[in-house]
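ARCHIVE RECORD
Type: protein–small molecule complex
Small molecule: flavin-adenine dinucleotide
Source of inputs: curated submission
Record status: active
Notes field left blank by submitter.
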Amino acid sequence: MAVFWVLLFIVVLGVLLYKRVALLPATLVMGALLLAYTFLGRGGQAWDTTLWVIYGALAVLLNFRPLRKQLFTRPVLEIFRRIMPEMSETEQAALDAGTVWWDRDLFTGDPDWRKLLDEPPATLTAEERKFLDEDVEELCAMLDEWKITHEYGDLPPEVWQFLKNRGFFAMIIPKQYGGKEFSAVAHSEVLTKIATRSTTCSSIVAVPNSLGPAELLLKYGTQEQRDHYLPRLARGEEIPCFALTGPWAGSDAGSIPDTGVVERGIYDGKEVIGIRLNFNKRYITLAPIATVIGLAFKLYDPDGLMGDPDRKDYGITCALVPRETPGIEIGRRHFPLNIPFSNGPIVGKDVFVPLDFIIGGPKMAGQGWRMLVECLAEGRSISLPSNTSGAAQLAVYATGAYARIRKQFNVPIGRFEGVDEVIGRMGGRMYAMNAARMVTAAAVARGEVPSVPSAIVKYHVTEMARQVANDAMDVHGGKGICLGPKNYLGRGYQSVPIAITVEGANILTRCLIIFGQGAIRSHPYVLELMKSSALPDPAERLTRFDAALWRHIGFAASNAVRSFWLAATHARYSSAPAKRATRRYYQHINRYSAAFALLADVAMLSMGGALKRKEKISGRLGDMLSNMYLASCVLKHFHDQGEPEDDLPLVEWACRDLLYRTQEQMHSLLRNFPNRFLAVLMRMLVFPTGRRYSAPSDRLGSRITELLMNPSSARDRLTANVYLGSDYEGIALLDSTLRLAIQAEPLEKRIRAAQKEGVLPNDERIDIIQVAMERDVIDADDAALLRELRERTLRIISVDDFSPDELGTRPLQHTLEEAERTRESWKQA
Ligand SMILES: Cc1cc2nc3c(=O)[nH]c(=O)nc-3n(C[C@H](O)[C@H](O)[C@H](O)COP(=O)(O)OP(=O)(O)OC[C@H]3O[C@@H](n4cnc5c(N)ncnc54)[C@H](O)[C@@H]3O)c2cc1C
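STRUCTURE (tokenized, with ligand):
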């Protein structure tokens, strides 16, 4: 009987915590249970009295706020204030930037799926669709990536003109300034499609539409600056670049040593108050051809000329500086991995510009870091995820077809299990990349500035692109390696590390931004705890801290219970919005969300500010959050596309892979958690029955490979942005040859069977198609089809070769001449 009552108390308390019942009703429920126990249980009077005393003390302490604040909250607040690390201005700006969205739900341990699924899907307006189908298609037809990267080292002039004339640089500029005013979804779709043709061109188009002068002007510029620059940028009369990075400040961009000192000087023949700039920037995209430079520097006003004699150090400030301003050295180029998108250094010595050149005017002096972080929060969701998704779509599309066309041992290479495994994972990852890109772009289009999701998408989509690029190269073998006009993979492969490095290098993004920012920004209570603990008024400070602290304690206890229960039941009974095949994935995200929220809280509580330096811990926590975010995007994308049955293998593979990784990251976090006692405790709550979630099965991978090796609607949806063109040697050739190869397979089988039966000779020296026709194994039409396939296959598997001077490097020429001279001297000897 006693066991029954103990269990009943535990279960009721567990249900109250699981359901997150508020403190007072929960206290009343526990009181009612205790009353029932007093009458029905057989504890004896002394025992019952002891329980009522404990209950009464807890009920009063928890629910009577003045007492709770004095006895419990105040000492906690004091400790909290002592251990809370000082936050730098740059960190504060990063935290204030952007909005929280689905990342908050994943942090709650109980995501509200209806909210996500009811959000409108990514769509294009008729005008955006027309632009994509006509202008972008026309642009792609003009692009020849081999010539651009190897011969011209730039886009040809007619392509530059086309980009300017058709408004490719004006996608984010409002119509009133002559821009296109496209949504984030359209912007992303345009970049993705261009990237399937030329990563050089997609990078060039991305920059003016991303973090840079136009975006900064739109958000912060004065009306005069907007009226002057935006129409010119929209027409392509001005080419912008944005210069933040320098030799001494890369990832730690807030530490730039570049200075602007306010002083009197002569500009345009007149004496004005202006800024004397000295800077040294590198890696600046479009710098060599830019006409206007967005410049970040630290502003100082030693003489108080800006009107505030007490303020000498203003901090990071952004200004727009015309290229022709005296003192600027610009034009030299870096050579970023053979992708010639015009990138180079800019040096400025004693450059003098008026104060009005500050973006937003003098009142925005010192606001530069906040401006940049806010713009980055949005831009990171679009440019790099789109560019890398485009390159990956091309790789997936081509690899599926190539693996069916290319045969070894008389078998399409995609039929070998080793290759099949690789193609399967390429498809699964591609689905996750598309989903993350589209769902996040749709959120941006609705007005979200999702800072944590944008970092997740930037990091993970570029990482997945790297994996897809590696896999595509492996499946293509030498065909992928030998560069030349016939190689459709090589330049995309080379461009991946660039995407990994820019707009927040990936290692830093993973370890410092996704969880570091997410834990504070997206967590339901941490930011409020931090803000309330810093309030100047002690009474208000205690009241607000008390409210946040107790909600946080309830939240953490609830997550511990939810984590245990959902793990023990394999999340079977948790609510999910789908009835079909995807139901279990929603449920598993529910489970991992609770476990993640628990682990994050315990990590923050036990390590405090030191967690910032424990990047192996925060990186893993970031991965958990990211994988759940990406899996949510997969489910939302599937839902938005009308849940097409054919896509299920892709959806299942992507979800399984992401959730399996989440589990494994939780496991390795617990293995490496510094406090071993807490690690054991958490393992009991998170994995009470061990790690039972498995990675995608081999069969699932093979189903994807089949989808990609056949013309199918799932394949078309997955690679919808690929520019096919009508090239004799291009992607269209791969597609038509794939269809031919499928048609020819029964004929090839018939010929092989006839060879085995001895009806046809097995002799490589003879024309087997001719002999098969003569011996009625196949008819004339069949023979024509097989010949056509052979001819096309040869074109596809061919690679380019060059005479040494066509490769045209000076050292090579020199070496050849050396070699010739050596040979001559040998002959003479
Ligand atoms: C092709 C190209 C185009 C670019 N375009 C522009 C542009 O237009 N404008 C502009 O201003 N800049 C531009 N950049 C600069 C780019 O943003 C920087 O390269 C990037 O910020 C990284 O700086 P870094 O290369 O100096 O590497 P570093 O900062 O030296 O970093 C090296 C490595 O250390 C890691 N790391 C650094 N700090 C941490 C940390 N705290 N925790 C964990 N890991 C860390 C990084 O992730 C990276 O892997 C461009 C760069 C390239 C290569």
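CURATOR ANNOTATION: The pocket of flavin-adenine dinucleotide is lined by residues 241-245, 250-251, 283-285, 336, 343, 498, 501-502, 505, 507-508, 511-512, 615 (CB under 6 Å).
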